[in-house]
Amino acid sequence: MKKLMTSGSKISRFSKIFQIALLFLITFSTKSQSQKNSQSIEINAKKDRIEEERFITINGIEQWVTIKGNPSKPAILFLHGGPGSPISPYSHILYGPLEKDFIIIQWDQRGAGKTFGRIAPPELSPEYLKANPLTVDQISNDGIALTEYLAKYLGKQKITLFGTSWGSVLGVRMASKRPDLFNAYVGHSQVVNETDNEGKTYQKITDMAQKANDQQSLEILKTIGTPPYSQARNTGKFYRVIKKYERKNSIPAPDSWFVLAPAYNNDTDIKNSADGDDYSFVNFVGDSKLGVKPMTANIDNLRDYTEFKIPIYFIQGEEDILTPAESTKAYFEKIKAPSKKYIPLAKTAHGFNQAVLDTQYKLFREINN
Q1: How far is it, in rounded angstroms, from Cα 19 to Cα 21?
Q2: Quick one: 133 exposed, middle or buried, by C-beta within 10 A (0-12, 13-18, 19+)?
Q3: Is 119's pLDDT higher than 90?
Q4: Which distant-in-sequence residues (6+ apart) come within 8 Å of 250 by Cβ?
Q5: Residue 238 CB: number of other CB atoms within 10 A?
Q6: Mean per-residue pLDDT over the chain, rounded
Q7: Alpha carbon of 268 to those of 7, 52, 183: distances in Å?
Q8: Element (H, E) at 318
Q9: What is the H or E stretch that residue 173 is in?
Q10: Which residues contact 177 (CB under 8 A, 6 or more apart)?
């Protein structure tokens, strides 16, 4: 998701190195303890509305969760991309219209947004990164633990799971490991195998830059060379060129979607969000100089996650370069599930646009009818 920063906000020197426009959303306390740990809880007196924004203790750390909508309706848990780019600051714009028909649950994952801010160091340093690694299993286990809590707290037998980009890495794991918790999984810009795609992607955008006589992008690609990259800064440069060419061939999201909710529009949360973005990204792609291993190293869903006990839906942009349609479709074809549906979207790249939102709305209603 796009990040907005006030002119007065300060980013650490280390954070600036890795600041990029990212492309990609148990141990619980008792209910009384969760209430005690809440930063803010706001529940309308009306029976048809629940509105909570609070920290919940998940697997030993407090993590930020928002729960908004009609308590009598089905619940949807969103897994954001990035991996450090929560949807929660923009959910009021993107999903406010759905709150009358669903319970919309946003979660700032470990290392992201307000959750990162809860334990953020004064400065995001190489030492902190090396001493505090993130893993796919760690975050997907957090997601399962959170779902267990939500099902009990909201009185729901099952919850609809949605994962976008990085969130889709978590989504297939959660859906495969605990199908009893979910009635369906919806993956958007589904990650299949990050490392296998990189070489083809590099060649594709090199060809596109040559065709456009884009000397600036060609110089960047020549300088960083072919992937994989040992330094996060080079991966960041690679992704920026990818995003440039995705924008050229797709209908983007309107700028009006990226207006921070008032609760997130302050210097502290903006800095924590930016630092969490950097922290999560370096963990995602790895950096040998910093001694951080990539979370992407062992992601191979085509090998590991092809059998599911719940319905599976994929939303795929036809102009997506980062998680290309040919890769996602090949994965979809190998999946065995009670039912499955692949939905290609024209003029759509890796991120959200109106077509993605409209498709989500339609699927959520279809799944929960």
Answers
A1: 7
A2: middle
A3: yes
A4: 317, 319, 347, 348, 349, 353
A5: 25
A6: 88
A7: 13, 21, 37
A8: none
A9: helix 166-177
A10: 140, 144
